[in-house]
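User: Predict the complex.
Assistant: Input components as received:
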Amino acid sequence: MIGPFGLVRDLGRALDGAGRRLRGDYEEDEWGYDPSFAAAAEPLLSFLYDRWWRVTATGTEHVPRDGRALLVANHAGVLPWDAAMMATALRRAGITRDPRFLVLDWAFELPWVSVAIRRNGGVPASPYNALRLLEQDHLVMVFPEGAKGVGKPWSERYRLQRFGRGGFVELALRTGAPIIPCAIVGSEEIYPKLGEIPGVAKLLGAPYMPITPTFPLLGPFGAIPLPSRWRIAFGAPMDLTSLGAEAAEDRATVLEVAEDVRSRIQAMVYDNLIERQGAFL
Amino acid sequence: MTARRVLLTGVSGPLGARVAAALAADPGVEHVIGIDTRRPPGVLADRITFVEADLRGDELASILKVAAPQVVVHHDIVQFPEPGRSVRTLHDLNVIGTLQLLAACGELPGLRALVVRGSASIYGSQPDAPAFFTEDLARGVTLHTRFQRDVGELERLVEAFARRHPAVACTVLRLQPVIGATVDTPIMRLFRSAAVPTFLGYDPRLQFLLDDDAVGAVAAAVAVPVRGAVNVAGDGTVSLARTLRRLGKRSLPIAAPLYGTTVAALARAGVLPALNDDVVRYLRNGRGVDTTRMRRDLRFVPTHTTAEAIDAVAQAVRNEPAGAAA
């Protein structure tokens, strides 16, 4: 809203909000999710969504409006931009629930970054956390490729890595949550990894330390993601309740379902790569 | 349940005295016998039988035999030095004291329940830890601090005792940090000091238990003996930043590599209270515990959530005279 009245009103609202924040009079749930902080990040995320990455989202109708569900997606980039863009896509589709996402443990040791991720709905990737979130009927995003997904070289882009031991399938079976396969195209180009700086990762306790076109050349500015063009596709939900909760104990079933989800996401990734045409323009 | 004789260790400590008073007021409890090396507060002394004894002393076994309690509450577990409990004796008290007490308990034929006041510090504070520890997760954690090792050892002793004496229901209460106007712990001293040193760029999730609820939880465990460990905490978690704002406290952000030396120097200068490793790690990484067992098995619901406990402390600290700060 532009114009003197709009500005005065916005300023008043901002001051009021700041005052409440300083008194500690704001909401925060038991996970440290902070809705007003998340709302403050909204303009930046909107800018990234509309202008920077020009995201096209499809299949948002597959995401349930309430109740537990597990969104399973391919993963790239050590910072959870993919989770943030998925959440923005859902908000744009009128899904007003606040999705939670599991983030590599390592990110929770970083100053500031860890706090920002947590306040936006990020949770350390632990099966205990995922189980509790699903039992509380949250919408949970997981990236089963984990560190293998984010650390793969440029030549391997969009080739989905092994889905670990299929822990996410166990979670879905135990909690009866449907799995919604999601494909994200564009996230692989934001930090193209050309090589690795040996030793440094070990020194910092990081899973890997990449060499990208902008990092370490531009120092901290290397953290600015490249403006690739993105597509996010949400697939049809897979209901596993017919297998029963006991199936979570059965390794063969778990691995089989995990491989099924992986191949569905891989196919969706290829489809969307063709749909997208240019990676940057 | 029928009237019982309850023996309580650490009866003269600040919380121990309140537990003793709560048990003495409980119609389900016939008699309270308190053990401590320190004198209990005068008001309490009339309502309980006080025996001045050291848990590590030779006379403990005979005292227990004469007292013949049905329930033993081991409340003399000390995390921080307090009057009559110097920093040097902490480990000795926690581990050797427990060892002697359990040995003496093993010779009581009438013993039905043992309640031990443990600590959620057993889980430690790690950035990649589960957001809410369930009781079975204590096995997997690496023990980093001295007190963590103490409670770890203490719980192993209690487990071994429980295995050898299946007739005795052994409960270990794992309490999250207790706060309240009547407690004097490093965390409460921090909440009373001018500023609270925080780790620059970190904002942990904290979980607290109000002192009244700590007393209530021990009383609940005496009433309903539960086997095994039970987490005890106020509902929900609150970030450190929000805690300090609700308390009206200033934070003093210090970069992580300089934190230890800066805080130690400020403590020497008398500006800040001395902080032990558990508190420092808690202020950096926080911790949450799952309280399903507390509600379901112990049938105990704290009167205050974590946020409400902080508000209660905020009110109490604000009303204290300025000179009261330690």
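The two ends of chain B are 43 Å apart (CA to CA).
Let me know if you want any component modeled separately.
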